[in-house]
């Protein structure tokens, strides 16, 4: 008989209200460790709000959030990140006027005693060069370390953002629309980057591209109007009439 694995992150009847509107309504979500788990749904379903709650950027109105068994409800986002939940955003969150290598080094630096010295000297941060280059190699950007981040094409900026997140070596990585706005080539590259770098950690992603979800995710949560509509594998979710109605009916 299989032994149930405790979730790495879970919510317990979590609710988020804005002026009486429930963006998230009594959601209980459990994510198994070492999986790639998707949260999908029509626009306005509450997906990004859910990410904001999990990462501490938005406090819940009620309910609880647990990470690795510890209650982290109301914990500030910086502390949540230090505990091991790191997220990306729909909009690039890179330092455009730093080099690609220095972007990753800043992320690595935040985990060292140099963390309070944003403008630490190149000599002081030289020890971070090799770890930063290794992370860039992991996302296929080892040849771009000296390039100014602002000059990267869009798909590469998203890859750099993934590298910045990976520099934190988080057990839980939250990716918000990682392939949004990408062409086919960049989407394929990003799928492989996520798959490769998911080894040994848990990834939760919000994603509109269902082909990406089908390729990557072992578990899918479908949300609609702030609630969980369906959970299951891709085939189970795709076959559910409620999901078809939500996407093709009046759910938008």
Side-by-side strand order of the widest sheet: 7-8-9-4-10-11
Biggest β-sheet description: 6 strands, mixed
- Percent of residues in beta strands? 15-25%
Low-confidence stretches: none
Residue-averaged pLDDT: 88
Helix content: 25-40%
Listing every helix as H and every strand as E from the N terminus to the C terminus, the arrangement reads EEEEHEEHEHHHHEHEHEEHH
Amino- and carboxy-terminal Cα gap: 42 Å
How many domains, in number, for the residues? Answer: 1
Q: Globular, elongated, flat, extended or rod-shaped: what is the shape?
A: globular
Oligomeric nature of the chains: single chain
Counting helices, strands and paired strands, the structural category is alpha/beta
Number of helices: 10
Classify the fold: give the CATH topology.
Answer: Rossmann fold
Using the coordinates above, name the CATH class: Alpha Beta
What would CATH call the architecture? Answer: 3-Layer(aba) Sandwich
Count of extended strands: 11
Q: C-alpha Rg, in Å?
A: 19 Å
